[in-house]
Amino acid sequence: MTLQHTPDTLRPALLPGPTDFPDSPLSHALRQPTLLGLFLPIQAGGWTDSTLPRTTDWRFDYNRDLVIEAERQGFDLVFALSQWLPKGGYTEVLNGQALDSFITTAALAAVTQRIMLISTIHVLYGPWHPLHLAKFGATLDHISGGRWGINVVTGHRAVEHEMFGWTRIEHDRRYELAAEFLEVLGKLWALDENFSYIGERWQMNEAFVTPKPNYGRPILVNATGSDAGLDLAARYSDIVFVTSPGGADIASALDTLPAHTAKAKARARAQGRDIRTLLNPLIIARDTEAEAWAYADRIVAQHGGRKPMGAGRFDSDAQAWKGHMAKSDPYAKVGGNIYLIGTPEQIVDHLVRLKAAGVDGFQLSFYDFAPDLAYFGERILPLMKQAGLRRDEENSQENNSFKETYEKA
């Protein structure tokens, strides 16, 4: 039997998700008081357009070592941006050297055992057909044991769409198409019959996908701040990756995040679902407050002079970064949705307050990733556990080789 559908006959996929299975990797991670993730620097320069020396490197081996260390520390997930830009990238530092997020996270499945691996994918760009991604996603779900997922993005820069021969699609229309894409994915993952579909942008005839995912479907994440994006996340996503609406400093974030996170969760509840919020702080921590701010000053002093990430030289209709762009804050140049600067105790205090503001997890960035991640594990993570933000895992193992490799850098 073949089931025939058009956009008008599609219904919201009632496909069970990973949180409906208590033994899924996502359900296991959500038993932690706070999710902990790492934002991989697979783009040259990571998040920061500064020439201050550092180890941060976009190459696979460097990022592989980061993920192995993050898994050792008990991190729950990793993901990275997906970049489609003309020659030269954003700036001289953020110069266009960037691995593909999908291929990178797929490769990481072979060298990890527990950590969840999320691929950022622009689902509306030329290469992707829902049938491709349904098959690739189900395959990676099995290779990883249910640890793989998709950070669904729609592309906010005109130049990105134009690289694939498209004209940029209007903002809210992009989310309508993304919903259609996810509906079709859900049908392909769920149905035990062939599936035919005739839509405006995608068509398929007697399509079928095996194997079926282990836990209903792969993990779904949505990176957004707009109303249309939040509506999409409320209907389909397990995690919504948010920014601070008010600015990159901690005070502005704490003023504006409670209403923003509450809105995202209320929209999900209206759909009969629960959703978790994830924020991307860039952490600069040192033993003393003076040392931390002095290091931040050196980063800013050697900054390339461009605006914070998300406000570069290419036309964009993104809404999530508006609060950052509206403020004149030199420290916003260090990168991240927000910046946290101070001693380990101060950093943990900020994280506690962000959790109280409705943030369910942190996707961390650093300026100098390898040594700063090692410092995080040694000095900050124990304080997070004392503060009730994290709990020890039974399979945690001690391994100081990562720290020793980079401590001289």
Task: Give an overview in words.
There is one protein chain. This protein is an alpha/beta fold. It has helices spanning 25-29, 60-73, 101-108, 130-144, 158-163, 171-190, 227-236, 250-270, 289-301, 322-325, 344-356, 369-386, 401-406; strands at 2-5, 35-39, 77-79, 116-122, 148-153, 194-198, 203-207, 219-223, 239-242, 276-279, 281-285, 338-342, 361-364. Helix 2 (60-73) packs parallel to helix 12 (369-386) and helix 11 (344-356) crosses helix 12. The protein is globular, with a radius of gyration of 21 Å. 49% of the residues are buried. An 8-stranded parallel β-barrel has the order 2-3-4-5-8-9-10-13, surrounded by 5 helices. Strands 1-6-7 form a 3-stranded mixed beta sheet, with helices on one face. The longest helix is centred in the middle third of the chain and has 21 residues, at 250-270. The protein has one domain: TIM Barrel, CATH 3.20.20.
Topology (elements, then pairings):
Layout: E1 2-5, H1 25-29, E2 35-39, H2 60-73, E3 77-79, H3 101-108, E4 116-122, H4 130-144, E5 148-153, H5 158-163, H6 171-190, E6 194-198, E7 203-207, E8 219-223, H7 227-236, E9 239-242, H8 250-270, E10 276-279, E11 281-285, H9 289-301, H10 322-325, E12 338-342, H11 344-356, E13 361-364, H12 369-386, H13 401-406
Parallel strand pairs: 1-6, 2-3, 2-13, 3-4, 4-5, 5-8, 8-9, 9-10, 10-13, 11-12
Antiparallel strand pairs: 6-7
Helix pairs in contact: 2-12, 4-6, 6-7, 7-8, 8-11, 11-12
